[in-house]
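anyone seen this seq b4? input:
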Amino acid sequence: MWGLLPLFFRLMHHVHPVEIVTQRVIWSLVLILTLLAARKGLAPLVATLRDRRLLLPLMGSAAVIAINWLTYVWAVNAGHIIATSLGYFLNPLVNVALGVLVLKERLRRGQMLAIAIAALGVAILAASALTTLWISLTLAISFALYGLIRKLTPVAPMTGLGVETLLLAPLAAGWLVWASGHGGVSFGQDAPTTALLIIAGAVTTVPLVLFAMAAQRLPMATLGLLQYLAPTLQFLCGVVLFGETLSTGQMASFGLIWIGLILFASDGIAAARRNRVVAA
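predicted toks r here
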């Protein structure tokens, strides 16, 4: 889902990036509250809002995901899709680093080799795109921090996302009110744009809930390496569909990253087989 987001946001290239993000927040909140009400989940949401031990980390996760959303939407519509893909290529490596340094997770030798090869590929990719590296670093660090906070915060995925959007909603509504009096907003000007902005709520909510569920169930190292799938799709969107320039260095890095992925997957399969033999 995340890998195909450039296709969706390019349909709204005429909308200000901040409006896209604020509309994402508002319509995500509407969807989440509706789903929580249908599942009788509003009580845990209220309880979380009253629990300072849970509310404070969720304020942090709300802040970093808002930074991530705004940077991503602006970059896609400014023609920097490859830079966004680099950010999400970097993100798994940051996740692995956080898993080792903060959560004290241990890596097998095969995993370390796979990560080293993938890191080399990302380093080559970064060196060939220095002018847009700030985009990539912002996306990588913000989303890695988001994943870490959500992993350490004992809140159900939908409830946590509901709290985050509730915290962001006043800021989003305030910006929309201000913008309506200073040049206007795109929402309501024509049916296709209005529909896309409403749909942005679901496009935001569904993958984030799935990610939050995965973050609570998987080791950070595994979660990190699996996340190469989304930037690969974004990378292909930028190069194949939108004609962004691809250098020789970027092609080499792309190959190294996928070699690292294959090695990581192979090590995981071998470890699972050894565990089954021991259990038997």
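The chain has a mean pLDDT of 86. The CA atoms of residues 68 and 138 lie 7 Å apart. kinda curious what u guys think
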